[in-house]
Design goal:
The structure holds 3 protein chains of 3 kinds. By secondary structure, chain A is of the alpha+beta class. Helices cover 26% and strands 27% of the residues of chain A. Chain A folds into 4 domains: 204 residues, Aldehyde Oxidoreductase, domain 3, CATH 3.90.1170.50; 152 residues, Aldehyde Oxidoreductase, domain 4; 167 residues, Aldehyde oxidase/xanthine dehydrogenase, molybdopterin binding domain (Aldehyde Oxidoreductase, domain 4), CATH 3.30.365.10; 156 residues, Aldehyde oxidase/xanthine dehydrogenase, molybdopterin binding domain (Aldehyde Oxidoreductase, domain 4), CATH 3.30.365.10. In chain A, strand 21, helix 13 and strand 22 form a beta-alpha-beta unit. Chain B folds into 2 domains: 72 residues, Roll (Ubiquitin-like (UB roll)), CATH 3.10.20; 71 residues, DNA polymerase, domain 1, CATH 1.10.150. In chain B, helix 2 packs across helix 5. Chain B is globular. By secondary structure, chain B is an alpha+beta fold. In chain C, helix 5 runs antiparallel to helix 8, helix 10 runs antiparallel to helix 11 and helix 11 packs across helix 12. The longest helix of chain C has 27 residues. In chain C, the strands form 4 sheets. Chain C has a 5-stranded antiparallel sheet with strand order 4-5-10-6-7. Chain C has a 4-stranded antiparallel sheet with strand order 11-12-13-14, with helices on both faces. A 3-stranded parallel sheet of chain C has the order 1-3-2, covered by helices on one side. Classes of the chains: A alpha+beta, B alpha+beta, C alpha+beta. At the A-B interface, helix 1 and helix 16 of A face helix 2, helix 3 and helix 5 of B. The complex binds flavin-adenine dinucleotide and FE2/S2 (inorganic) cluster (2 copies). One FE2/S2 (inorganic) cluster binds next to loops of chain B.
Amino acid sequence: MTIGARIPRVEDARFLRGEGRYVADLAMPFMVEAYVLRSPYPHAIIRSIDASEALKLEGVEAVFTAADVPADLGPIVCRIPTHGDLSPYLQHPLAQDRVRYVGEPIAVIVAKSRAICEDAAELVEIDFDPLPAITSPYRAIEPNAEPIHEAGNLAGDWGFDLGNVEEALKSAAYTVQESFSVQRHTAMPMETRGLLASYDRGRNLLEVHGATKVVHTNRNMLAGMLGMSEQDIRLVEPDVGGSFGARGEFYPEDFLIPFAAKRLCKPVRWIEDRVEHFGAINHSRDSDFVVTVAADENGIITAFDVKLVTDMGGYIRTHGDVVPSHAAACFPGPYKVRNYRINTKTVMTNKTPTGTYRAPGMFEANFARERAIDRLADKMGLERAELRRRNLIPAEMMPWHVGTESVKRPTIFDSGDYPAVFEKALAGYGWDAPFEREENGWLRGRGLCAFVEPSGLGAFEGVRLEVDQRGNVTIFSGSSNQGQGHETVLAQIVSSIIDVPVEKIAVRHGDTGIITFGGGTYASRTAVLCGEALYNASHGIRDKALKTASAKFNIPVEELELREGAVWQAGKNEPLITLGGIARILMPGNPEFLKPPSDKNIPDHDGLVVTSYIRGVPGGTWAFAVHIADVLVDPRTGETKVEKYFVACDVGRQLNPLIVEGQLIGGVAQGLGGTFLEELTYSEDGQLTTGTFADYMMPNVYNMPPVSTLVLEDVKPEGNVLGVKGVGEIGPSGVAAAIGNAIADALKSNTGLNILPFTPERVLSAVPTVTR
Amino acid sequence: MTLHQVSFTVNGKKVSVEVEPRQTLADVLRGQLGLTGTHLGCEHGVCGACTIIVNGEPARGCLMLGVQAEGAEILTVEGASPDEGLSLIQEALREFHGLQCGFCTPGMVMALHHLFSVNTSPTEEEIKEAISGQLCRCTGYQGIVNAAKAVAQRLQAQQ
Amino acid sequence: MKPAPFEYFAPRTLDEALDLLESEGSEARVIAGGQSLVPMLALRLARPEVLIDLNRIPELSRIRQEGSTIHIGAMTRQAHALASSLVFEQLPLLHYGLQNVGHPPTRARGTLGGSLSHADPAAETPAVMLAYKADMVLKSKQGERIIPADEFTLGTFDTAIEPGEILAEIRVQAKPNEGAALVELSRRKGDFAMASAAARVSLAADGTCAEAHLIVGAVAPVPLRFDAVTDALKGQKFSEAVVREALELMDLELFEFDNEDISLEYRRKIGPVMAERALLQAFKRAEGMQK
Ligand SMILES: Cc1cc2nc3c(=O)[nH]c(=O)nc-3n(C[C@@H](O)[C@H](O)[C@H](O)COP(=O)(O)OP(=O)(O)OC[C@H]3O[C@@H](n4cnc5c(N)ncnc54)[C@H](O)[C@@H]3O)c2cc1C
Ligand code: FES
Ligand code: FES
């Protein structure tokens, strides 16, 4: 059994040797380069565009503007259910007559080289009529604010009202009200985006290489927009330098580059540069909360009353309002609170559109809720873990229906023993162990947070498993991979069932040419959904192999077993036949089985191949997790040093502990970035002021504390055969909350620690004057 | 704009290419010599994905011009890899899960390659300093530092 | 992010470089380590028509001692100076300063002269040179000018270097027997500072302060010298209380930078803390020298 084995990844060798093939590493004969000319204005009317000088430049092939795309081409649609109708806010691939954020595509320049494209871009004359820019959602919804879209700037105003919040607030022994702000920041994978599209006009075939979490979905959208058959487009995902939620969209370029290739009948490559990326990739988070939490005299939380405002940016993209939607659906977290009310406002501003970033909505909600709960504990004089302990959903109340929904799926915490995991986490860290409060003038604090994280969302997933005549096994998966280790984990699942070593199992994924349907990769779904489909397919292969051997050798199936890549008769020490041999027998047209008279349609002669599609569980599967950290704070400068960081979670079952741990630690690093460093800031006139890696700071090795993990496999979800829960988002999801609580504990103060990121200046402002 | 004929050694082989002065060395290596293992994560010197070794010193491939390579000895990740399999550093990175998406990996390999070429028994602090200019968005660095510590131990054991 | 086109020359001698600089006029720019210039080229924030590469001029990258003067060629790599035992022994503050400049790959290419010429207000080297009262040797076709450090850095990205001139050498008086420290606060180690402090301390035989220098960087367009503070320390035995008292004399009005993410008020709070740390650390090191 290799499921659960801690084995190094099979895909690593090519990356380590520099043999990974990312989109910028691909080239084609006669290929030309594209450049997207973007708006320098946050809000303006485009009066005219004159590209004549640019077209005269040697090496320039074409300049496409909105006038060149078909007049009936609509905007890029939103592909998931949203709260209310967001269609008035969708983005066209190229700005039509108005731009709404700095970075909005206005034209595509195609030339012999990227450098010439950039030279040409300087020659395109655009006559803009600047309009006032709105960078604050609060300003945007003031009555006299300039409308960014005709439908107004308030895109959504919705919420939930469960139980009786008013009553609970009235009768509460304690209430705490706090405002929280989670800054705009985003995934920022190390590889920028890029596409290489080529068009074979004679055959009407379009081939597109480029990263996306969902190749099939994007291919289908592209087919619709280009008026092509889905089967005439092949979308292939090469190696991908990270995604973290930001690569799932259908971005404007996903249309523009194939469109240019088709128009020019030449391979066109677009490799985004980092500065472009800052304005073009979805931003995320950017949410403010006002939280009221109420409790009775026994420390039982009786209500959450929440107001949420999310800045959506200039347009609604394909992920709609997922961030506020998840935040609103999951706000109550792991606590048995029945009185819950939230009002959510999603607001348009003149900033880059937003979408998902790892743990979308959850990082935000966990921060606000868990900080508020610490305040409540302080107010009650109750130990912080104890307050949580009294309120966790007990195991016997599983599955827990929160009563909310997100993207039209009910929020159901399917399984888990939260109190048990909570106690193990506290014990594992030594939460109660005393510690020095001061060291060389620095103050030490400890903080924790608890949360529930969804995974395995999505309607379906599919795989095809093939064994060739030589016994080589190939998995064709509809998922995609941006560094999560699917090539290893998927092979492990198959290996454990058909007993072929992992190294002999190839994984092909992210290619619409290899499997008809695929769901893709998001919300930590691959292990859950793809894993189950693969489990079924592997069993299918096994059954097929045994049945075929049984027929060939006339031995009852019950006496046969599959191991070491061959079929054996029980008790014999020679195999009967290898899997390759079985595959040979099952090859269509094999005369051995082409028995007359009428077996033309040989139903079993479709190779040693099994395709399996499985349906997802509507609510996905939810993992409970606890984060704990010790932090030192310098009360004179606001500097902080995270001394140690701890993550505990119950994931049902680990497919590969090495990869699980890697996901958790890497996730914590991203969480720390969002907690201390990263921020996409805009000047009042709508310019992005953190547009390079020199000012958008991501953690480097010095920013990382030692991270330890406690991964439990206590309660297996029943919704999938493998009993797994996704782990991809557990790492970042609780970091801001745990760190904020630890700093507050160190300073014995809470003021000022509600706004992210915790810059030294903000932390210093939270230091009580007496301590300073 | 004048084109320059530039000759240098890369991974032990002499090469001669015609370049525009404005081309960075990384672009020349990738685009003209097909050495796509050297990655570009920012093109402004911060991420370190393009780190290569020039005349024995680590350098940002994106902050050198191709024309400046005249006469230089350059080592890229392709040259730092054995013909088959993995180097000691690469093997350790795999073992300790020091990579996920692999995009920063060639730069990390080169930064560590340089570290171990001048210091076979670095301390944890020295390891951190050596990779302090290399950003990795995936791993949180822990696996990378652990891998480097293991390399140091193994090199010690070999001696 | 590809640079606008330019012509490129790689002179072999300083004279050749100066000839080129004169003949190509104001559209020409020199490139040293390229660690600041190439990003600006890539972003098209700098668009010289001609680039004159100083990397092939050996005479510009020597460090040597003549009597009590250390001559550092402008093209000396930051990594080279950092690893130099001469620098460590004779100019310890430069050593500690360079530890904070970028990362190994940027230091391997980046030069001392480039850093000084670039004059980023948050850069460490201008503060170090101000603390040493170093002399900058500028060369042009017209000859040589020697500019003291306090007249060299004029403002944000602005120095006394005139068109046609190259910073050729930095001359510093050796200071072997003193303690030095450079302490800074940056949001991410290896990045530019929010405030930095450079201190030099030498002690009299009785352990009291004989001489001290204090520079605070990254808080104004040019690094700031605080002689009032160090004068007050003279003749005193160092202690936290003594240093704090002396730092009361720091004129915080001289701090200027006020950004949305790092306010003037905040810099005024951390500047003295950095100064205190630098002074105490330099003192400790000076004490160590005496033992
Ligand atoms: C990731 C990263 C982090 C960094 N962190 C820091 C840091 O913490 N602290 C810090 O101080 N710096 C830092 N830097 C910048 C530093 O590395 C540069 O080395 C320095 O600013 C410029 O030196 P250079 O030799 O590379 O000069 P170049 O980039 O080649 O030139 C810079 C400017 O100076 C001019 N110039 C160069 N040499 C001369 C000369 N001899 N005479 C006249 N003009 C000349 C050039 O024309 C140009 O305008 C960092 C850079 C990077 C990429
Ligand atoms: S690409 Fe060179 S440092 Fe980022
Ligand atoms: S492995 Fe993805 S950036 Fe390092």
